[in-house]
């Protein structure tokens, strides 16, 4: 909808306005550790690791931190390797908005307590597994920025096996595909010279709820930012969209 943003686009807007990093160094390092553990320490052959490193570099994570995280994931960094596990939490924000939280943690009890506190302080509640996940589906997303030729983009999307794409004034163009096709699509776009900014797996809502109430908007953005600020949290997704004016009002 013109003049409205989903949470993924709201994050890009706020990052520009606040000049803040979207992830802490701890979050970025953990993503690299898990990627290296799952697929090996070579980014040339490990797409998950390659994208994690790209995100880390975009947020100015020092090279020595990146190398240390890779070594931890590969099990070659002494005996203090974190035993991280991936967990998905589910809950409700103000007004019954559905929220998915993806976390990497070495202490489930701590993470659950931190999440429960964030939800309760902002008019929401942490729910049971499965309470909202049925409202979402996972997709591969490649984000492009810069001047684009739409005819060439359409042709390349067909070649790369994309499902569709969306233009957004605040975050460029997002190209969507099945999770198993993300690496192929990302490589195809790069080979054709498109300015790939980011490639990731993301949960997308099947239907979105429009938020117009300023107080609910304020509480939602505060909750989402508090959740994303937790070191154990990697990604947060919700099924609301909001007028850009409300985003601006709550970004001052």
Record keyword descriptors for this entry:
252 residues; alpha+beta; Arc Repressor Mutant, subunit A; Alpha-Beta Plaits; four-stranded antiparallel beta sheet; 9 helices; 11 strands; 42% helix; globular
Give a brief rundown of this model.
By secondary structure, this protein is an alpha+beta fold. It has helices at residues 7-18, 25-39, 47-58, 63-74, 108-121, 150-160, 182-191, 214-228, 244-249; strands at residues 4-6, 85-92, 98-105, 125-126, 136-144, 164-168, 172-177, 196-205, 209-211, 233-238, 240-243.
Shape-level CATH architecture of the largest domain: 2-Layer Sandwich
Mean pLDDT across the residues is 86
Spatial extent as radius of gyration: 18 Å
The quaternary state of the protein chains shown equals single chain
Low-confidence stretches: 16-22
CATH H-level superfamily of the largest domain: YebC, transcriptional regulation domain
What does this protein look like?
This protein folds into 3 domains: 4-74, Arc Repressor Mutant, subunit A (Orthogonal Bundle); 86-134 and 207-249, YebC, transcriptional regulation domain (Alpha-Beta Plaits, 2-Layer Sandwich); 136-205, YebC, transcriptional regulation domain (Alpha-Beta Plaits), CATH 3.30.70. With 252 residues, it is of the alpha+beta class. The chain has 9 helices and 11 strands.
Would you spell out the secondary-structure blueprint of this structure?
Layout: E1 4-6, H1 7-18, H2 25-39, H3 47-58, H4 63-74, E2 85-92, E3 98-105, H5 108-121, E4 125-126, E5 136-144, H6 150-160, E6 164-168, E7 172-177, H7 182-191, E8 196-205, E9 209-211, H8 214-228, E10 233-238, E11 240-243, H9 244-249
Parallel strand pairs: 9-11
Antiparallel strand pairs: 1-11, 2-3, 2-4, 3-10, 5-7, 5-8, 6-7
């Amino acid at each position: 909808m013109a003049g409205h943003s989903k949470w993924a686009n709201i994050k890009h807007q706020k990052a520009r306005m606040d000049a803040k990093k979207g992830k802490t160094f701890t979050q970025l390092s953990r993503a690299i550790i898990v990627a290296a553990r799952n697929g090996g320490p070579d980014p040339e052959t490990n797409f998950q690791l390659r994208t994690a490193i790209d995100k880390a570099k975009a947020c100015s994570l020092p090279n020595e931190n990146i190398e240390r995280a890779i070594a931890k994931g590969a099990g070659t960094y002494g005996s203090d390797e974190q035993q991280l596990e991936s967990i998905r939490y589910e809950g409700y924000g103000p007004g019954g908005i559905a929220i998915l939280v993806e976390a990497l943690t070495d202490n489930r009890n701590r993470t659950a307590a931190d999440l429960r506190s964030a939800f309760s302080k902002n008019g929401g509640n942490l729910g049971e597994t499965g309470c909202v996940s049925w409202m979402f589906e996972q997709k591969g997303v490649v984000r492009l920025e810069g001047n684009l030729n739409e005819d060439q983009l359409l042709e390349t999307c067909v070649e790369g096996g994309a499902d569709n794409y969306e233009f957004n004034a605040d975050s460029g163009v997002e190209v969507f595909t099945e999770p198993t096709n993300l690496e192929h699509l990302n490589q195809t776009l790069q080979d054709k010279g498109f300015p790939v900014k980011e490639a990731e797996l993301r949960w997308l809502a099947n239907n979105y709820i429009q938020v117009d109430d300023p107080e609910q908007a304020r509480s939602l953005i505060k909750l989402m930012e508090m959740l994303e600020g937790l070191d154990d949290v990697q990604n947060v997704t919700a099924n609301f969209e909001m007028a850009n004016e409300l985003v601006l009002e709550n970004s001052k």
